Amino acid sequence: MLPGVGVFGTGQTVRALVPLLQKEGFPVQAVWGRTQEEAESLASELDIPFSTNKTDDVLLHPEVHLVCILTPPPHTRQIAVKALGIGKNVISEQAATLTDACKMVTAARYYPQLMSIMGNSLRFLPAFVQMKRLLGEGYCGNLQVCEARVYGGSLLSQSYGWAWEELMGGGGLHTVGSCIIDLLSHLTGRRAVRVHGMLRTFVRQGGPAGGIRSVTADDYACFQLLMNGGVVCSVTLNFNLPGTDVHEIMLVGSSGRLVARGTELYGQRASMQVEERLLSDGGEAVGPSVRGLNGMVTQLRLSFQAQEDRRSWVRHPVSMAASFEDGLYVQTVVDAIKRSNRTGEWESVEVKIQDVDSNHNHRTLPN
């Protein structure tokens, strides 16, 4: 018995996720949109029986036991904390701020029996699953350097919205960089201790007539992470390249390297003359995030399917998912990169969880 799903959001990820959930047998019962019209339009398009622009209507829906939050970042924390508080399992995107991420961790710790995972689907992409396994088996020897490149067209929406505003969680660092920071930590089993970064906004104005609203969200980010154990990570994100779609992660060690390009995996040991293809994309023309979503939804089904109660789940199938604690770490790194961009200095990464919600009836929990 798979749980009924309530989905928050009407963007491209929702359009990819809902059919995958339905294909795996999850009944998608409700969808929330910013406006009633947006919600109704998506519900009609994806065959979802209930639509609304009121969050409580989804959270209190009697057939919804699993909540997927793919809203603009400023809404994320409020929905996630409330959902956990009324006994719903939660899959969430990154929150907008460090304070929000702290509140989400506090709620997740208070309700440990409920699922509370981040929606970074890259962890479930077969290329990265195999990359992590091969790294652990010693394919690269001692890991030394990680490099990541993501290039693409503009992340700005056609009309003014949260994606234009850095303080609302817009920009390449927050929306794409967060997933890369999390992925690098997942692949290597290490966390950043110090960071250095530079952010730029090259497209500073936007709007149908040009120059109507100013843009504060970054469209270029270049940053370095010094991980515990001395591993160095270098990441470049550039969203000023329309028509390109580059997504490459390379791990270099003392005796070899592994490279994920899009959804394919390549490797070359020091003893080899040319690199070998270790995993092909199978001819499917889908990007890494959507392909990863496919793997994530399959693991979700395995987590819930053997349970008699629709709300119950087992941890093992989704053990590779990012936790809310991982989300807090990522937000801490993002904030440190922003700080470095302002100061021009290397900044330290210190993950702290404080009792930031005085209205909540729980206190600070030990780290």
From TrEMBL:
UniProt keyword annotation of Secreted present: yes
Molecular function GO labels: nucleotide binding; oxidoreductase activity
Domain Gfo/Idh/MocA-like oxidoreductase N-terminal: residue ranges: 5-110
Record's subcellular location: Secreted, Extracellular space, Extracellular matrix
Taxonomic superkingdom: Eukaryota
Residue ranges occupied by any GFO/IDH/MocA-like oxidoreductase domain in the UniProt entry: 128-258
Entry keyword annotation includes Manganese: no
Pfam families, sorted: GFO_IDH_MocA, GFO_IDH_MocA_C3
Keywords per UniProt: Extracellular matrix, Oxidoreductase, Secreted, Signal
Function field: Promotes matrix assembly.
Similarity comment: family membership: Belongs to the Gfo/Idh/MocA family.
Protein name: Glucose-fructose oxidoreductase domain-containing protein 2
Organism: Cyprinus carpio (Common carp)
